[in-house]
Amino acid sequence: MSFSEWQPRYAEHNVAVFPVTPDKTPAVKGYLRVGLNGSSQLAIKFPDHTAFGLACKRNRITVLDVDTPDERVLADGLARHGPTPFIVRSGSGNFQAWYRHGGETRRVRPEPDKPIDILGDGFVVAPPSKGRKGEYQIIEGSLDDLDRLPKMKGSIFNPNKKQNTPSPSLSSLAGPKGDDDGRRNDKLWRECMQMARGSRNIEDLMVRAMESNQEYCPPLPPNEVLKIVASAWGYEVEGKNWFGHGQRVVMEHSIVDDLAASDPRAFALFSLLKRHHWGREFYLSKTYAEKLGWAPNTLKAARNALTRQGLIECIHPGGRGKNDPPVYRFTDLGGRG
């Protein structure tokens, strides 16, 4: 798990990495200019470092940085900007989706209401680095996929566009005439993601995709349709296809493992809070217990269990009268909205 171990692995794919500290600070000067030769020298000088990063622009990589552990936000980002075979979970449980650099700059919150940054410049911490909050993990793909990363789609990241230019909606992509290959590819992928839910198997989806492709002018090549179908079906069978499935409550497997059997009331409360209060503060009072049909002591016990697990935290204890209930919010571990 050391820098000296992983530096040559990244170098095999023409990616130069450099050591960083556990708090994600570069350990060397001039890190944005580090090339493959300099990277190999740093591996000799910093062999035992357990965290490392890479300069995005120099290594021709753009990262969709999803600053939340909410998989719905990741799915929305992939739907908007296209699939990629290389996805990383950061030490804090957030996500990175890696793409081939296409001229993007470093843009923090290009859409203010979405916790997503575009890192086409600057640097990112690379997996499997160990930070203070945990280990960066490759959850989709392998280093081999760095050789075939796709470019990011979506006009919002075009540096010649205004920052808040919205990306095209599905309906705006409906016309078959005048679409370039990228837009037709993106449109068919979106259609396949929607059709996958009603398909019995990948062969069924393939037939439907081929029929849809014939409506394009000109149609995409059959081998490109095969790739799109394989990508969409992969999302479907892995439970990561959010198209047409409605809203969901998403939580880490570890939370299910820790609570579902040992404390079902706490698990039920956590699920309800995620369902109804995602992304905002909430009250946990006697009134809420009555709304659930629970005894106040039952709610209190479940609430305290979630607090001990570090999933929620009290930000106002209340108690200064009938209209001063205790106020809580999700922690980063619980999936802050």
Structure description:
The protein is of the alpha+beta class. The protein folds into three domains: 3-157, no CATH class; 171-237, no CATH class; 253-330, Arc Repressor Mutant, subunit A (Orthogonal Bundle). Helix 4 (181-196) runs parallel beside helix 6, helix 5 packs across helix 6 and helix 8 crosses helix 10. The protein has helices spanning 3-11, 36-45, 71-81, 181-196, 202-213, 222-237, 253-259, 264-277, 286-292, 296-308; strands at 17-19, 52-55, 61-66, 87-89, 95-100, 106-107, 116-119, 123-125, 130-131, 134-135, 137-140, 282-283, 312-316, 327-330. A hairpin with an 8-residue loop joins strand 6 (106-107) and strand 7 (116-119). The strands form four sheets. Strands 6-7-3-5-4-11 form a six-stranded antiparallel beta sheet, with helices on one face. A three-stranded antiparallel beta sheet has the order 1-2-8. A three-stranded antiparallel beta sheet has the order 12-14-13. The chain is globular, with a radius of gyration of 23 Å.
List the helices and strands and how they pair.
Elements: H1 3-11, E1 17-19, H2 36-45, E2 52-55, E3 61-66, H3 71-81, E4 87-89, E5 95-100, E6 106-107, E7 116-119, E8 123-125, E9 130-131, E10 134-135, E11 137-140, H4 181-196, H5 202-213, H6 222-237, H7 253-259, H8 264-277, E12 282-283, H9 286-292, H10 296-308, E13 312-316, E14 327-330
Antiparallel strand pairs: 1-2, 2-8, 3-5, 3-7, 4-5, 4-11, 6-7, 9-10, 12-14, 13-14
Helix pairs in contact: 1-2, 4-5, 4-6, 5-6, 8-10
How are helices and strands ordered from N to C? HEHEEHEEEEEEEEHHHHHEHHEE
Shape: globular
Amino- and carboxy-terminal Cα gap = 32 Å
Backbone CA Rg: 23 Å
| Mean model confidence by pLDDT | 83
Q: In terms of per-residue confidence, which ranges show pLDDT below 50 for 5 or more consecutive residues?
A: 155-179
Structural class, from secondary structure content? alpha+beta
**Relative helix content:** 25-40%
State the total count of DSSP E strands: 14
Number of domains: 3
Walk across the major sheet and give the strand order.
Answer: 6-7-3-5-4-11
> Main β-sheet: number of strands, strand sense, barrel status?
6 strands, antiparallel
Helix segment count?
10
Note the beta-strand portion. 5-15%
